[in-house]
N5-carboxyaminoimidazole ribonucleotide synthase
Amino acid sequence: MTDMNKESSRGSEAFQQADSANGNVSMSGTNNLSNSEIAGANPAVQSVKAADRSVVADARIQATEFAAGTESAKDADGQKQRTILPGGTIGILGGGQLGRMLTLAGRNMGYRFVTLEPGPDSPCGQVADRQIEASYDDVEAARELAKVSDVITYEFENVDAAVTKLLTQEAYVPQGSSLLYTTQHRLREKRAIEAAGVRVAPYAEITSVQELHEAAARFGMPCVLKTATGGYDGKGQWVIRSADEVPAAFEELSRAGTDLVLEQFIRFEHEISVIAARSPRGEVKAFPAAENIHIDNILHLSIVPARIDKRIQDEAERLAIRIAESMEAVGLIAVEMFLTEDGELFVNELAPRPHNSGHYTMEACHTSQFEQHIRAICNLPLGYAGLLTPVVMVNVLGEHVEPLLKWIGQDESGAEASGVTAKLHLYGKHEAKIKRKMGHVNLLTEDYDLALKWIEKSGIWNS
């Protein structure tokens, strides 16, 4: 038996002994909650002394650290690395569709899930073992999530600062707080991207109408004023097309009470994105670049492979990997870029989580973005991220649901008639509001023109 195997064996024995003291014997090496524990309904479990819980937790952590051989390795935030094996419990901060798809992918691997989400019967809560129904800034609810989870991740980046601090102190959050702190603020994010040696559009911090006038004159019209925090799908932005709009733009966005940043408008030929994954052990992989088409600032289509030169695809993937390594990201980081007519790439923004433009990976890649995120945060070897088939992902908004359900059942929508295999994903949201993301369809095909014809023929997205 090698020294590493001896260490792994000792860790497993310590875990068994600690669980035996609590009336359980498990070989999972993780906090493998029973159904009654998940529901919080077992009085015997509830009455276990805090000291006993601590012994069990320490032994479980020790077992996974021995097994991974990472007992002295630490991440960027100083947390000791752990390997969370299948059978463990993953806590998710947020209960939306990204958490839902993470949970569905992780269940296939044998993980259990608890989500913290204020809304009842959330998309993630519908498929998780348990939903803690509380607001995102509820510290006691966050503490409960920490108590029942072996590892915690988040499905959105606007996490309350106090909750983030508590979780990194009382739980294992391999993504840490540093990356969140950076990506929650556009100015910090841009500086971090530049520090990685990657280009962003010229920008300026704006604190007054006069500064906005001066920067807009320097960058030229149009230019884009953005709030430094919050904002998604086009919210928190104002495209300034003339000097006359400057006062109104400043007044409107200043109401958010956050810093403002002005960006030079990049005249691009394509919008693309690359999703990279990095594990605590430093392994990094990138998914193929997606070509993205937006309507009303909401993602409409992702086309993969992107209809750009292979050299530029490769360069985009290299840039995403460089950013993930420079920022010491753990889990997924989505890198959105502009491609100009002369072949230059500018990074627009980052998202440290699964991303809408990565949904195509669910059927079109060897490993989906959701499985890859779980592999990364649990410190498992990352999966191969290569493409299995060309694919077009089309988003399903509230106004598309009813006509889509009618179309999807017709013969002409099927693979034999269209040359396209349609994979439907609905998110379990109760109300189909206009412009609200309700699901997506992955259209698998050998020729993406056939997928585009499928979309056009359906008539669903033509309005």
Remarks:
- The chain has 17 helices and 17 strands.
- The first strand starts at residue 89 and ends at 93.
- The chain has three domains: 3-176, 202-264, 268-458.
- The radius of gyration is 23 Å.
